Every structure is written in structure tokens, then in C-alpha cells.
Amino acid sequence: MTHRSLPAVGVLLLAVAFTAGCGSDDADRPNAAPPASSTPSQDVTGLPSAAPPPSGPGGSATAPATPAQPAPPQQGTTERRPASPPPVVLPPRPAGAPAAQQVVDAFRAAGLKVPRPKDRSVDCGPDGLGLGCSEIVATDAVTIYVFPDEVSASDIAETWSGQSYQRGAVVLNYLEAKTPAADRPRYEKALNNLR
Fold first, then answer.
1. 105 CB contacts (<8 Å, ≥6 apart)?
2. Residue 164's pLDDT is what?
């Protein structure tokens, strides 16, 4: 194989290797050959060709340098991550408090509208609203929150003052509801009658 058939990248690597190998030691010697050009010349075909290789001692051509092999990857421990985040653990509903779905069922039994109920209890946790509630069921008429204790329920009811109703650990929220204010007492009565 001749140097003319090496790809241009190989030629550049050879030129860099020879230049780095010869270094500045040759510049101090008066009979040193001029450094090899790092720019390949072009032959009559218009393709890049390599400059003639420098001669080693005794006038023979030196063997081309081989590129360094990449180091093998280091062996170590691989951190394994769970495929999904761990489930959010919500505080339990207090004993004797109705579940949010039971409140929705009581509203239906009383003939009240609770369109499109949706369990949004995951919003109680730190990735949601972070309210620390136990359960949430949202409907287009009212949103039912169940808290782990009456103190937490009372704090939220005060925050939503005028737009909520509290009975024990349960809070009815009308903030996003389409329920007219005149109908709210019926929902509150149905909650109060729930045992």
C-alpha cells in the first residue's frame, strides 16, 4: 500500500504524529531536515496526496505511526433508578369521617347534581396542591376534600372563606364550581345528614 492511497484523515494523523515525534529537537540541529508540512499537496488528479515521508537513519522510510487505541471503559457500579416515581402516600382519613366518594353518593341520593366526578386525591400530595389532604373528588358542582383531622380542614376552610363549607374533616369547596350560591345550602345539608 502506498501513502497516496491513505485517506486524507490518515495523512493528517501521520503528519501530526511525525511533527510531534520530531518536535523542537530537530530545530536545534544544523543538518536537520525541514519539518513536514501538515497540509497535504494535491496530485494531478486533484485528490490530496501525502508529502513524502521523512527518511529515518540510513535513508529508509520509517513505518507510519498507528493511531492510539481508545482506553477501555472503566468498570464501575451503575446507578439504577426506578422506572417510575414511588407512589405518593397520603395521610389516612380519620375514623368516622366519610370518604369523598360517599359524600358524592349522598349528594346524588338527595337529588343534587354532581356531574363528572373525578378522583383527584393524588393532588393532595407534594407533587400536586400539597394541601396534605387524604382525598379529593372534584365535580362540576362542588369539590369534596377530606382531611386527616379537623384542624387541617378548618385551616383550609378559613383560607377559602365564603367559598367553602366545613363539617368535621370534610370541606366542600365552591371556588371552581358552577353551583349557584342559592343551591349551596342543599349540599351542606346533605353533608350534615351523612352519618
1. none
2. 92
CA 32 to centroid of chain Cα atoms: 60
Helix %, strand %, coil % of the chain (to 5): 35, 10, 55
What is the residue type of 52? P
pLDDT attached to residue 192: 93
Closest CA to 174 of 141, 135, 146, 152: 141
Q: How many CB atoms lie within 10 A of CB 107?
A: 23
Per-residue pLDDT tens over the stretch 35-65: 555 555 555 555 555 555 555 555 555 555 6
Residues in the chain: 195
Rounded to whole angstroms, the Cα distance separating 152 from 131 reads 9
Q: 464501575: which residue's cell?
A: 76
Of 152, 177, 178, 174, the closest CA to residue 165 belongs to: 174
Residue 70, helix vs strand vs coil: coil
- Distance, CA of 156 to CA of 169 (rounded, Å): 10
